[in-house]
Amino acid sequence: MNGFLDALGAGGPAPDCAGRMALYGQFVGSWDLDVVEYAVAQSNRYGTTLRVYDPGIDAWHIAWTEPVGQTYLTMIGRAQGNDIVQLGKSPDGNLIRWSFRDITPQSFRWRGEVSVDGGATWRLDVEFLARRAGLD
């Protein structure tokens, strides 16, 4: 087992990708959240996210898993101006867009949206207002 854990460990990002790692690396740490739900509340929003940078497409593969409800989402994430936008499809086939906006070193706004018309319009389902823990 130690060999496996040693293979996963790193003192920092690979030198050839260090700049790209900062896109999500800026969020490392603890955050306090205020959550606003605009859609019907779901039973469980707890999940785990895995993000892997792909230099071939200059973007991130994102996998989000919510084990209690057995929800599994995959998205592609990229910087768009000062924002980060992740696009994918929900289990019912609708487009989803998760975005990080208004990003500062101490705060950001995260939005979860869905489109039922192929991206022509978007409905805001949930919004997280995040601030770095310990700033209050």
Task: Explain this structure.
By secondary structure, this protein is mainly beta. 11% of the residues lie in helices and 48% in strands. The termini are far apart.
- Counted up, domains total 1
In what order do the strands lie side by side in the largest sheet?
1-8-7-6-5-4-3-2
Could you tell me the number of beta strands? 8
Radius of gyration: 16 Å
Low-pLDDT windows of residues = none
Largest sheet: 8 strands, antiparallel
Percent helix range: 10-25%
Strand content: over 45%
Structural class: mainly beta
Determine the N-to-C terminus distance. 41 Å
Please provide the ordered H/E string of secondary-structure elements. HHEEEEEEEE
Q: Count the DSSP helices.
A: 2
Specify the overall morphology: globular
| Mean pLDDT figure | 89
Topology:
Elements: H1 2-8, H2 18-25, E1 31-37, E2 48-54, E3 59-66, E4 71-80, E5 83-89, E6 95-101, E7 107-115, E8 123-132
Antiparallel strand pairs: 1-8, 2-3, 3-4, 4-5, 5-6, 6-7, 7-8
Write out key terms for the chains shown:
mainly beta, 8 strands
Brief summary of the model shown:
With 136 residues, the chain is mainly beta. The chain has helices at 2-8, 18-25; strands spanning 31-37, 48-54, 59-66, 71-80, 83-89, 95-101, 107-115, 123-132.
